[in-house]
Amino acid sequence: MFAAGGSGGFGPLGQLAVLDTGHAWVVQPAPPCRTSVDECTRLWGTSDGSTWSQLAVVDGAMTSLDFVDASTGWMVLRTSAEASVLVTHDGGRTWARQFRASGQSPLLQVSFVNTRDGWALGSDTSYCAMGGCVGYTLYATTDGGATWTTLQRPEIPWWGPTPPLASAAGFLGAPQFTSATAGWIRIDTGAGAGAGGVLVTADGGRTWRRSNGDSGIWSVGALAPIDGKAAVATVHAYEGSASTTFLARTIDGALTWQRLPLDEQFPVALPSGCQILSTVLGTDQVEWRVDCGAAMNASARGTLAPFLTGDGWRLCGSGLATATWTKADTQLSISEGSGVPGEGFVVARRSGACR
Hints:
This protein starts with 15 loop residues before the first strand and ends with a strand. It is mainly β. The chain has helices spanning 294-298, 300-310; strands at 16-18, 24-30, 40-46, 53-59, 61-67, 73-78, 82-88, 96-102, 106-112, 118-124, 128-129, 132-133, 136-141, 149-152, 171-177, 183-188, 197-201, 209-211, 217-225, 231-239, 242-250, 258-260, 275-281, 285-291, 314-319, 322-327, 330-335, 345-351. The protein contains two helices and 28 strands. A hairpin with a 5-residue loop joins strand 1 (16-18) and strand 2 (24-30).
């Protein structure tokens, strides 16, 4: 747990990078330090998942943080005059500058998939309006940041085209690469009349395809890519005079999207005394953990069978402590619990009929 002694606490926290259950880093913005008039940043880290220590204090506001192993990571610092990419090889204790961009109000955001392959998205926020920015530059490295090449230049609107219903192309978020070839960038509308969506690349950022969503104007506030095909996005959509917020899932690289209600209703009535412990929205299924008491959890197939049959579901397969039911073009699988109190059993729903 990240906590501080004293009455003041740590104050606001910023960027977070999590590598595994033991290793994580978090940024704490602070007042100007040393001789700088710009914001100062403190970096904290943990190597056991529970105890945290201050690793470094740097001049500038940190706008991006990414680690690929317990030793190697990159940060982006932004001051009033420049944005810089720095690298660490000792878990965040010391940092060395690798790359810098200047301008009136420069901004860089990075994504690395290993110790060699990385990308930096650059923009100058002084050239942004309410509906989007004038241009973005995409840089890439294949040697861990020692050298960088320009993949996309701001003179060519590689992040477009602007959707017909919008006056601008929106604001690009940080690049999110899942491999040396597959990458994603979310786009939100900001406060203006721009349009959001998602950018997808399958060739390491050399070419991009834009998905503007399934209808209306999408503003994508967060994006969680799994690989080059699957991702989940939080979306605020403007459709005519109405607007709505939902999760959206793609499994074909943003060619199509499936809307996921934020409150997934359990697909069948439950016996008295049962409760839903958790709901998990995956890339291709929704999973519930249900607790009906130790005895009923261990015989969940029999517990739910009368309710499923009465609601039109048909048993189409069974195995050791598992059963699969089908209705229309939907499958429902049940995995019984071990009988340990409070453990529950699992029900998963996915598209596709049983054979």
